[in-house]
Write a structure and sequence with these properties.
The chain contains 13 helices and 16 strands. The chain has a nine-stranded mixed beta sheet, with helices on both faces. The longest helix is centred in the C-terminal third of the chain and has 15 residues. The relative contact order is 0.15. Bound molecules: 6N-dimethyladenosine. 6N-dimethyladenosine binds next to strand 2, strand 3, helix 3, strand 10 and helix 12.
Length: about 350
């Protein structure tokens, strides 16, 4: 392994600060939240953040799904391998995110919105469930103009692996498509995460616009189910959903499409489209840990994506990359929120 990377992995999404507390039924009920879900905050949710801080001893931790994955990938990769892009405000929360990324060795190229505060995500932990309620604020102000600034676009041109969190489909599709086009034109890998069930459910058109460019799609079983429902597939079975997605039209015909669906502690399913029109379907087992070792599951999926991305960047076979994702997820669920242990462990 080289001692230094060349920022070959570039990630785009919504930088958020997580306000995480251990909640209860009463709190979930008060704000109409499901125990295990991810939603965009509406007016009625805006009291949640102060409530968590004042009444539930909430702590502030770095969040934003793809930002967590970028930190996760960099945890494994050699120094200077990862760049992260998104929009924050000029405030304390934004500064905090900059510090955390710098500590993790992730290079950031943030857009700053002068008028809007940095986005926050309320995280209500109940047992092994987590409910995420996001007030995007500045994260919602990302613009294609920023990506096209010469010093930022240079980072895009330099990168070989472009990763977008599906949550960004709610924010700036033109920026996602610019990365997607760059990947297709130069035969780079374009990787997308479905992120949450509400993305295939309520942002179906945006997702369908981007899917033709996707070389690798990452998701979990509930997102696969939501995709099946909104696309009226005949089955919600993860393998069937994956098969249906790998067959969709593809801009870059030089690379087959791969779909990877995690399923909690059940084996991770991967499906690769083969030239013959056939599929290569694999199941990679999860090395489960004792329930008593789990701190919280906030960021588990992001850690999986981070470990998986590191494997892909390092040119590992698909099953090894999946195992690296499982390895990092296992480390992260033993930490508070979307974090990784120090001193560093090695895969
Ligand atoms: C657009 N939305 C809803 C979001 C998010 C999000 N990251 C980006 N966009 N909603 C929750 N998250 C992040 O997901 C992580 C856990 O997987 C949270 O900040 C949390 O760190």
């Amino acid at each position: 392994m080289a001692s230094k990377g060349n920022f070959e992995l570039l990630c785009l999404e919504n930088p958020l600060l997580d306000i995480q507390g251990v909640g209860d039924e009463k709190l979930l009920e008060k704000y109409g939240l499901k125990a295990n879900d991810a939603i965009l905050a509406e007016e009625k949710h805006l009291g949640l953040y102060d409530d968590l801080i004042k009444n539930y001893k909430a702590v502030l931790i770095a969040g934003g799904a793809a930002q967590n994955s970028a930190r996760g990938a960099q945890y494994i990769l050699p120094a200077d391998s990862t760049v992260y892009i998104g929009c924050i405000g000029r405030d304390k929360y934004g500064e905090h995110l900059e510090e955390i990324c710098a500590q993790a060795g992730v290079k950031t190229a943030y857009r700053y919105d002068e008028e809007t505060p940095t986005g926050r995500c309320g995280v209500v932990i109940t047992g092994h469930n987590r409910s995420l309620c996001t007030d995007l604020a500045a994260a919602n102000k990302y613009q294609l103009d920023h990506l096209k600034q010469p010093e930022v676009w240079k980072l895009v041109e330099n990168a070989k692996f472009l990763y977008v969190g599906g949550y960004h489909l709610t924010v700036c599709v033109p920026a996602i498509l610019a990365l997607a086009e760059e990947a297709a034109a130069k035969d780079k890998l374009f990787i997308l995460n479905l992120s949450a069930p509400f993305i295939p459910q309520f942002f179906k058109d945006q997702l369908d616009q981007v899917l033709p460019y996707v070389d690798i799609l990452i998701g979990n079983e509930t997102e696969a189910g939501a995709y099946a429902e909104s696309h009226r597939l005949f089955s919600k079975d993860v393998k069937e959903v994956a098969k249906s997605i790998v067959q969709l039209p593809k801009k870059n015909s030089k690379k087959p499409r791969t779909v990877v669906f995690t399923q909690g502690t059940d084996p991770t399913v991967s499906v690769v489209a083969k030239d013959s029109g056939d599929f290569e379907i694999k199941e990679t087992p999860v090395h489960a840990i004792g329930q008593e070792l789990i701190n919280d599951t906030n960021g588990a999926g992001d850690a999986f994506a981070g470990g998986f991305l590191a494997g892909i960047v390092r040119g590992k076979p698909l099953e090894t990359a999946i195992d690296m994702g499982q390895w990092l997820a296992r480390l992260s669920i033993q930490q508070l929120g979307p974090s990784y242990p120090f001193p560093k462990q090695t895969y």
